[in-house]
Amino acid sequence: MNANQDQPIPYAVFENGIQFLIVDITHPLFNASIDEQAYHLSCLKSVRSIESLKKMPGFIRNIFVKMSNVDNSYLSGMRTLLFKLGPDLSRGIKLGFRDKWAVKQTSFMGLRIRLRDLCRRQSELLQTQLKQFPERNLCFFNIAGGAATDSINTLILIQESDPELLKGRKIEINILDIDTFGPNFAKRCIDVLMQPGERFYGLDIAVNIIHYDWSQSEAILKMSLERSGWIQLCSSEGGLFEYGSDSDIIENLNYFFTNSSEDARVTGSLIFDRSHVNPGYLGFTEFIGVQIRYLGLEGLQRILTQTSWVLEESHEIDTIYILFSLKKA
Which residues, in sequence order, are bridge partners of residue 322? Predict the structure, then answer.
């Protein structure tokens, strides 16, 4: 596909042979899929919408739940990837009726805003370190990373801002996930983007896939030690901080702290607590059966008292998502 003659859209191929576009947050069609005013209005209207749904007959409510594409009480990584593409970039993909309907819904625009804003923050953090330490390699630890769209797009933003920062150093994206489908696609995306004429041509980028259950987090202890001299970023967008228990989050943070570099950072997304979250979002997630955590910033701060990390920065998106970065105390 081409948005115009100057802006090609590369694609990678899943292990099952399906072609899928690579999410690029700098692409005009990605940016065109975000209308923050429309998203804000949608959030305001969502309270009335969910109340109307609750009054509908049971069989209609069941149809709506099925159309919302929830798999096993959470939105699967690959459907999340589809919604991040948005309606224009996904136009050339053969979709079922449910996905065609869902990808057009304004409510899923929040996933694209979340991805864009988190990548911007991550690129800002890393550019400062890359400029200061030109001799150090760069390492991502992406917990429940799926297709690692935030890690890949953070590299895209850095490369667009100052391509010299990535040259001549090893770069690793370590995807720690219980699933393999999304991480394998991430690896294929990087392979495509490193081809001649593509964004990452000439760069030394490796993708490592680690089978990872965040309730058994010892693997991150060993990996961070082996790369203790590297610039390190541990992230979890729509993962650990939105679904993990307090003990899981604390253990992962403490293990990463132990052997990571002094200037290591942790970034991620979480949901507002129940008393402050958008009521329509709360009603919608409960209605369709998503088992999400309403941790909130106060909940994160409470967790951090049992670690040696401190909150560095936070950013709110329409009383639903909070993006944050942590640094060592």
Answer: 270, 316
pLDDT digits over 71-116, tens only? 554 566 677 888 898 888 887 777 777 777 778 888 889 999 999 9
Q: What are phi and psi of 72, to 5 degrees?
A: 55, 45
- At 231-242, the pLDDT tens digits run 999 999 999 999
- Which ranges of the chain does DSSP label H, i.e. alpha helix? 28-32, 36-54, 58-67, 77-89, 97-103, 109-132, 149-161, 181-193, 218-226, 240-243, 246-259, 279-288, 296-304
pTM above 0.85, yes or no: yes
Q: Which residues of 145-164 are buried (b: 16+ CB within 10 A; e: fewer)?
A: bbbbbbbbbbbbbbbeeeee
Among residues 137, 101, 100, 103, the alpha carbon closest in space to that of 23 is found at 103
Q: Would you give the distance in Å from CA 302 to the centre of its chain?
A: 23
Q: Give me 81's structure tokens.
A: 């990837």
* Under-70 pLDDT residues of the chain: 1-6, 47, 49-77, 288
Extract the tokens encoding 246.
């307090």
List the 170-177 sheet strands across, edge first. Answer: 204-211, 170-177, 138-143, 231-236, 265-271, 321-328, 309-317
